[in-house]
Amino acid sequence: MRKRFFRYFDSVIKMEVEREGKTKFETDSVLTAPAEELDSDVANHLFQGLRLHGLEGSSSQDFNEMEIVETTDGFSIKIELHDDQAILGLGQSIGPLNKRGAVYEMYNTDEPDHSPSKKRLYSTLPVFYIASARRQIGFFLDHPGYSRFDVGFETRDRLKIDVEGDGFSLFMFFESPHETIRDLFRLTGNPLFLPAWALGYHQSRWSYGDEKSVIEIAENLRNKKIPCDAIHLDIDYMDSYKVFTWDENSFPNPSSMIERLSNMGIKIISIVDPGVKAVENYDIYEDGLKGDFFCKKEDGTPFRPAVWPGESRLPDFLNSATRKWWGEHYDRLLKDGVSGFWNDMNEPSIFYTPELLKELQQLATEIDDNGIETEFLFARIASKKKYYDYGKDFVQTDDNGIVHLHRKVRNIYGFNMARAAFEGIRKSRPDSRPFIITRSSYPGIQRYAILWTGDNESSWEQLLSEIRLIQSISLAGVSFVGCDVGGFGGDCSGELLVRWTQLGAFLPFFRNHSAIGTRRQEPWAFDSEVERLIKKAIELRYSLLPYFYTIHKQSADGKMTMIRPLPIVWPKDRETYNADDQFMIGPSIMVAPIYQRNSKGRHVYLPEGEWLDLNTKRAFASGHVWTEAPLDTIPYFLKEDSMVVTTCSSQFVESGSWGDLRIIGFVKNYAEFELYEDDGISNAHETGEYSLKKIVVRSCTDGIRIEVLPKTGSFKCRERSLTFEVHNGERLYAVSVQDSPEGCEVLVK
Is-catalytic flag, 299? Predict the structure, then answer.
């Protein structure tokens, strides 16, 4: 076993481990930072018994012993855990924010059943934190193949990571979780800066299958004055599920339809799957054959998976030539007016292969009237179909001509598909910001696409699960994330949709999506009261867009994720480790969603300082409180000495700049907020076409002093008023001023 150490930043150590005589697969394409090699004496000292983050003169409780050993299949990493330590993160994995006491697998899998027993889902984001009130250590296991995390399950005081393959890289971050996320951005890239309309409400279903249905949805939204910025087209817009095509019968003139929707302020997002239908006279298929762009079996023959179109081919996205070829085809839909893309089924999901069909057919011939044995055979057939691992059935080839078994690089398949889309769209539309969604991902995905959590279900249990899941994903540096509001599978109730929409209003990606054959869940699909409350929640989101757009830009600049679990902000407060049913969105707002049926309120934990209930404008001291929350209310709070900038709700997002603004503050001493604005769609901000306006509120002996400092950037904001509503826990200070590029200062007594 060979070990090499590199220093990335002052506080980040990279350890490379390889089998003797073997070379591990490098995933350097996911990294953006250079490495500097450590002095060998320092490296050897660091590895011997690896005492992580040890302090001079500290007790054994201040260390975590780590051991790495070779195994038959690869390596085993064992890390000692102490009783007071939580394991936070592990990306898209079911369970509480603290992952101790369970087993998780890193192997991207199409798994619509998100029950607590599931060990793997669509994305591999192996970033985790050993955290306690005393100290925190961050880790990123950079390995594109299979790994298994036993987080104190078999042995309570041990984290055991089994890594399959010839090597891996392990990054260790010896900082606070907040600083670790910043270093993750430096290491794997800053999040994508999206068009402003991406922050609006999105409406989707599998499927709005023809032009009439799409227009009807759009007209309902506008007639009912429900804000919306995008409608998503699922697989049925395509001709026989052939990617990059339109069904000419259902969508005879897509560009005309999209122009009509554009005049209503609504964008179209179309789904794109990697499975290419294997049929003659289909140019994507035939060009892929000519260019040798498809995955193969080890013997060099075609790999023939079946997905939606039937027999298909999978592009080999490990190869840059394939990525370039694939990326060029998004322009076909862009020319029709499509504004964004939804990359789905890219784990990759496979329904079956000819070989598996034969196995299943053979098993079926054994079915006979044999009681329990027949029942077991039925179970074997179903299990083999559902859980068959195609990772050993085909290979991929990198740019150096090296052939890799798919199982060894599976976890970066969706990552590289998103990369292909991003690079192709940027080449086709260099002056615009791409909007790309992906279901499968790997660390670094944030610089190419946004992530949603996949095919969840309409249940109260999964509503809570999504609250936790989104926080774990954010801990991996994936900032723009969301879930299917209302649930994808199963039938939603009106109450559940209201509560889920209230959560969605505070998530970066805000989309209502449901499956074919389930109860409709557009805002008007229930009764008039449910419609009113859903509309109210969506309008709340649109009123918060100045705040959301600013924190989105801060995230794109590498400062922090938009969603922030409480232990990231207050790592020394042990109570926050269990408060995983609430979270911070940006630096100022804490959200405590309702996730239980018939609830009229909930328990909330308020960390240090005081908090302002933004529904009642009542101030609370830190600690455990009960807050009332009838069906029309989602509990959300403003942190002491912070502000939120709001505006009037609109039907859609016209730009990244706003009209009249209302600044709500809870200021005991001093607060500031830097409001970011631009045109909302182009890359002109890169050459100075933006506005950054710093707003300062400070308490003084005779009242409060408000300063709006001169803005930076050349973008011109519209004429408007700034209305301040500043609370200090005892009284309200209110004043309105005219906004100007030169800023202003006012004392409110």
Answer: no
DSSP letter string over 199-265? GSEEEEETT--SHHHHHHHHHHHHHTT----EEEE-GGGSSTT-TT---TTT-S-HHHHHHHHHTTT
Between CA 12 and CA 9 the distance in angstroms is 5
Encoded tokens for 469: 């899941």
What contacts 649, CB < 8 A, 6 or more positions away?
Answer: 227, 539, 540, 542, 543
Average pLDDT over residues 492-500: 98
Contacts of 146 (CB under 8 A, 6+ apart): 105, 106, 107, 164, 165, 391, 407, 410
347 as an active site residue: the answer is yes
Give the DSSP letter of residue 547. H
pLDDT higher than 70, residue 615: yes
Helix, strand, or coil here: 450?
strand
- Tell me the pLDDT tens digit for each residue of 625-662: 999 999 999 999 999 999 999 999 999 999 999 999 99
Predicted local confidence at residue 46, as pLDDT: 63
Tell me which of 142, 211, 455, 678 is the catalytic residue.
Answer: 455
Which of the residues 183, 347, 393, 457 is marked catalytic? 347
Per the annotation, the verdict on 455 as an active-site residue is: yes
Reduce the DSSP state of residue 533 to 3 states and report it.
helix
Query: Mind listing the pLDDT tens digit for each residue in 694-707?
Result: 999 999 999 999 99
Please pick, among 175, 211, 344, 423, the residue that the annotation labels catalytic. Answer: 344
> CA nearest 639: which of 661, 624, 621?
621
Q: How far is CA 640 from the centre of its chain?
A: 28
